[in-house]
Specification:
The protein folds into two domains: about 290 residues, Alpha-Beta Barrel (7-stranded beta/alpha barrel), CATH 3.20.110.20; about 100 residues. Helices cover about 50% and strands about 10% of the residues. The protein is built from 17 helices and ten strands. The strands form two sheets. Strands 1, 2, 3, 8 and 9 form a five-stranded parallel β-sheet that branches. A hairpin with a 6-residue loop joins strand 6 and strand 7.
C-alpha cells in the first residue's frame, strides 16, 4: 500500500509601503497596512476559511483516515492575529483533530540558511516557539523556506533535533531515482528526506485550470487512478504545494474545492493508498539510499536553485547589506528593531527583485507588486537605509552609555 503525504505551505509576507528617499529620517513605519489587511482578508475569504472548513469536514467524514501537514510562517500568523483571528482559530481546530501535523520552518520565511547557521537557528527557534504556543505541538519535521535544501542545510536541521526534512524531487539531484521513496541526508543519515513529486503536485497547483492541458479536466477519480497505478514505483507520494492554490491561484469556479472534496474518498476507495502526515510517513519507511545534494536546490523555477532570490547584483547587494546589520541588531536586542529585522529578512522582498524573465517570467510577475525589479530594489533599499540609520544611532548611544 502506498502512502500519500499531503503538505501545504501557508505564507503571506509583510508588504512594504512605497518608501521614498524623502521619507528617510522622518518616517519609520515601513509597512503598507492597507494592502496587508486587504490581501490577507481576501485570501482568508477565498482560501483559508473555506479550505480549513473543508479539511475539517473530510477528517471527520473519513474518521481520521484523511491526514495532512502544514507549515505556517510567523509572518502569516502575525497577520492572522491582526486581521483575521477566525482563521487562526480554524487552524487550531484542525490541530485538535490529531490528524494534522504542523512543521517547523524559518519564522520570517527567510533565507537565513544561506546566511549563517546562527541566524538560521535563531529563526527556527522563534518559529518552533510560535507553533508550540498556537497549536500545542512540538514540531519534529522541518520545511525550509521554498524547500531550499542541501547536504549542509540538512545537517544543520538534524543538529537542531529534527527527524525529517522536506525537499524538492529535482531531476538534477535524483537522476534516474524516483522521488517516491524516503531518502537519508548525506552528512547525517539519521535525518530522513521526503522529496516532492513535482509533476503530480503541479498537476493540482498549476495545471488544474489549464484548458489547453491534455489531461483537463482533472477529476478526483482520474487523479486517484494515477496515484494507485501499479506502474508508478515507490512507497510514499509527496504532494507539496502552496495552500493558496485552493481558491486563490486556482479560483473556486475552476472546481478546485469540488476536486479536493472528492479526493480522499476516491483515494481510499482504491484500497491501494492511505494518507499520512509527514512524520508518520517518515517513521513508516526506511531510507532506500543516501541523497547527495552538495549545492542548494529549491522548488522555484525550472532551475530548482536559489537564483530566484540571489541570482543578480540587486538581490546580492540587498542581501549583503541586510545581514551586515546583524551584529548591531543582535547587540541592541531591542524589541522594535528585532521586529523590523525579522520582516526585512522575508525572502519575498528578494524575489521581487528577480530579473528572470524567460520561461518563469509569468510566475515572477504574478507575485510581484512592483512595476520592475529595480523599483522593488530601490524601495527595499530605502527602507533598509533608514533602518540602518536608526540602528547606528541606537548602537552609538549604547556605546556612549557604556563609556560614561
Amino acid at each position: 500500500m502506498k502512502t500519500i503525504c499531503l503538505y501545504f505551505q501557508v505564507h503571506q509576507p509583510w508588504r512594504l509601503k512605497t518608501y521614498r528617499f524623502f521619507n528617510m529620517g522622518v518616517d519609520h513605519n515601513y509597512l503598507d497596512d492597507l494592502s496587508n489587511r486587504a490581501i490577507l482578508q481576501k485570501v482568508a475569504r477565498q482560501c483559508y476559511l473555506p479550505m480549513n472548513a473543508l479539511l475539517l469536514k473530510l477528517i471527520k467524514e473519513q474518521k481520521g483516515r484523511f491526514r495532512c501537514s502544514f507549515s505556517l510562517t510567523g509572518t502569516v500568523v502575525e497577520q492572522f492575529r491582526a486581521y483575521a483571528p477566525e482563521v487562526l482559530e480554524s487552524f487550531r481546530e484542525l490541530a485538535e483533530t490529531g490528524c494534522v501535523e504542523f512543521l517547523a520552518e524559518t519564522y520570517s520565511h527567510s533565507l537565513a540558511s544561506l546566511a549563517s547557521q546562527e541566524d538560521f537557528e535563531e529563526q527556527v527557534k522563534l518559529h518552533t516557539a510560535m507553533v508550540r504556543k498556537e497549536f500545542g505541538m512540538k514540531p519534529t519535521a522541518f520545511r525550509n523556506t521554498e524547500l531550499i535544501y542541501s547536504d549542509h542545510i540538512g545537517e544543520m536541521v538534524a543538529q537542531m533535533g529534527f527527524k525529517t526534512i522536506l525537499a524538492e524531487g529535482a531531476k538534477h539531484v535524483l537522476g534516474w531515482k524516483s522521488p517516491n521513496y524516503v531518502y537519508a541526508n548525506a552528512l547525517n543519515q539519521k535525518l530522513h528526506v521526503l522529496l516532492r513529486n513535482y509533476k503530480l503536485s503541479d498537476d493540482i497547483a498549476f495545471r488544474f485550470s489549464n484548458r489547453s492541458w491534455a489531461e483537463w479536466p482533472l477529476t478526483a477519480e482520474k487523479y486517484a487512478g494515477w496515484l494507485a497505478d501499479d506502474e508508478m514505483a515507490g512507497e510514499v507520494i509527496n504532494l507539496f504545494m502552496d495552500y493558496e492554490t485552493f481558491g486563490e491561484h486556482q479560483k473556486a469556479d475552476t472546481g478546485i474545492f469540488d476536486f479536493m472534496k472528492a479526493l480522499p474518498q476516491q483515494v481510499l476507495a482504491t484500497r491501494k493508498l492511505e494518507f499520512a502526515t509527514v512524520s508518520e510517513a517518515s517513521k513508516k519507511y526506511q531510507p532506500v539510499s543516501v541523497l547527495h545534494c552538495p549545492h542548494e536546490m529549491s522548488w522555484a523555477d525550472e532551475e530548482r536553485d536559489v537564483t530566484a532570490w540571489l541570482g543578480n547584483e540587486l538581490q546580492n547587494e540587498a542581501f549583503s547589506k541586510l545581514y551586515g546589520l546583524k551584529e548591531k541588531v543582535k547587540a541592541l536586542n531591542n524589541k522594535d528593531f528585532n521586529y523590523v529585522w525579522n520582516f526585512l529578512q522575508t525572502s519575498d522582498h528578494f524575489y521581487y527583485m528577480a530579473t528572470k524573465w524567460l520561461s518563469d517570467g509569468d510566475v515572477h510577475s504574478y507575485f510581484n507588486p512592483y512595476g520592475s525589479s529595480y523599483e522593488a530594489f530601490i524601495n527595499y533599499m530605502n527602507v533598509l537605509s533608514d533602518f540602518e540609520i536608526e540602528v547606528d544611532k541606537a548602537y552609538k548611544a549604547r556605546q556612549n552609555r557604556r563609556r560614561a
